[in-house]
Amino acid sequence: MKRVVNFSAGPAILPEAVLKQAAEELFVYKNTGMSVMEMSHRSQDFKNIITDAEANLRKLLNVPDNYKILFLQGGANTQFSMIPLNLMKNKKADYLTTGSWAKKALKEAKKYLDVNEVCSSEDKMFSYIPDLNKLQFDPKADYVHICENNTIYGTKYHELPDTKGIDLVSDMSSCILSEPIDISKYALIYAGAQKNIGPAGTTIVIIRKDLITENYPDYTPLMLQYKIHADKDSMYNTPPTYGIYMCGLVFKHLLNNGGVEAIYEHNKQKAALLYDYLDQSKLFKPTVVKKDRSLMNVTFNTGNEELNKKFIELAKNNGFVNLKGHRSVGGMRASIYNAMPLDGVKALVEFMRKFEEENL
Ligand SMILES: *Cc1c(COP(=O)(O)O)cnc(C)c1O
To answer: What are 315's strand-pairing partners?
Structure first.
C-alpha cells in the first residue's frame, strides 16, 4: 500500500530515509549478526549507539558542557512529577497555564509543591499566549514551568518569559529540534520523542548539571531521581534501546541535512504555506491569534461541525490522514513536524482549496 500523508499529532511522521535505513538494519545491524532490539544494552555496540545519539543531539542543539542529556522513559507525563520532586528547594514553583499539558503539569506539581499559577489562557480556549511582560514571578520560586508549544491548541511561545533569574523549565515535546534554541536560557528541557524525534517510548531530558542533586524527598522512587540516571549515563536500568537507536538515526539525518537551522527554514516555509492559505480562505479559519501560532501544529475550523466532519472524511479518502482536532477542541489540526515534506503541505493546501470551492 502507498504511504499516506500523515498529519498525526503524535506518535507522528518520521523521515522516510530513516525508516528505510531502519528497515535495512532491522534484521542484522552492521556486523553484529543481530537486530538492535536483540542486543544487550551493556554491549559495546549499543554503547556506541547511545553515545553517538547523545553527541549528535548535543551538536544539533549546541548543548553546553554544563548540561546533561538523559534518555528516559515514561513520556513527558513522568516529567510532570520528576521535575517538582527533583528541583524543589523552597518548595514553591510558578506555572503558566497555556493548554491541557501545562495544566496537567501544574496539577501534578501541586502534589509536592506550593504552586502559583502565574497566568492562564483558558478564558479563550487556550487560543493565545498571555502577555509575558505582565507576569509576576515569585522570587522564591524554585523554577518557572512553561509548555512551549501547545500541541492541542496550536500556540507557541515565540519569546521566553523574563523570569528574573529564576530557573526556566520547558516542555518542548512538540517543538524540540524544530528551530534553533539557546539552551543556556533554560534550566531543564524535556520532550517525549514521539512528536518530533522518534518512536514513542523515549523521553529526552536536557538538564543543567547543578540541578542534578539529592534534594528530592526520601520517598522519591529511584526511577524518578535524575541523579541515578545521570550517574549511570541513562543506563541505570534497561533503557528503551530500539527507541534510542531510532532517535539517533533521526539526529544523524538532521545533521546530514543542514541541522536545526535548515529544518527551521523548511518548517517556516511549510507553516507559511498553510497559514497564508487559511488567512485568505472563506471556509477554513485559523483558530489561534496570529502572533502566537505554532510552526508544528496548525489548528483550523470551518465553524460548522457537519462540514468539519465531511472535510476530515474526504481528506482521509484522499490520503490525508489524522486531520481531526483533539477531542477537547474539535475542528481540525494539521501537525507538520520536521519530517513532513513541503510537498505534503502543498498537496493538503491544494486539496483544501478544492474542497472550499465545492463547499462554499
Ligand atoms: C504529547 C505531549 C505530552 C504528553 O506526552 P507523553 O509522552 O504521552 O507523556 C506532554 N506535553 C506536550 C507538549 C505534548 O505534546
So the answer is: none
Residue with the nearest Cα to atom 5 of ligand 1? 76
The model scores a pTM over 0.85: yes
State whether the beta carbon of 77 lies less than 6 angstroms from ligand 1: yes
Using CA positions, which residue lies closest to atom 11 of ligand 1? 101
* CA–CA gap between residue 237 and residue 79 (Å, rounded): 17
CATH topology of domain 18-256: Aspartate Aminotransferase; domain 2 (3.40.640)
Query: DSSP state, 325?
Result: P
CA of 101 to the centre of ligand 1 (A): 7
The CATH class that applies to domain 259-359 reads alpha beta
What CA–CA distance (Å, rounded) separates 229 from 202? 14
Cα separation, 110 vs 255, whole angstroms: 39
Going from N- to C-terminal start, the domains of the chain cover: 18-256, 259-359
DSSP structure string for 52-115: HHHHHHHHHHT--TTEEEEEESSHHHHHHHHHHHHH-SSSEEEEEE-SHHHHHHHHHHTTTSEE
Residues in the chain: 360
* Residue 360 confidence (pLDDT): 87
Model pLDDT for residues 109-119, shown as the tens digit of each residue: 999 999 999 99
Scanning the structure block, which residue is given the C-alpha cell 499539558? 101
CA nearest ligand 1 atom 13, residue = 173
CB neighbour list of residue 347: distance below 8 Å, 6 or more residues apart: 5, 320
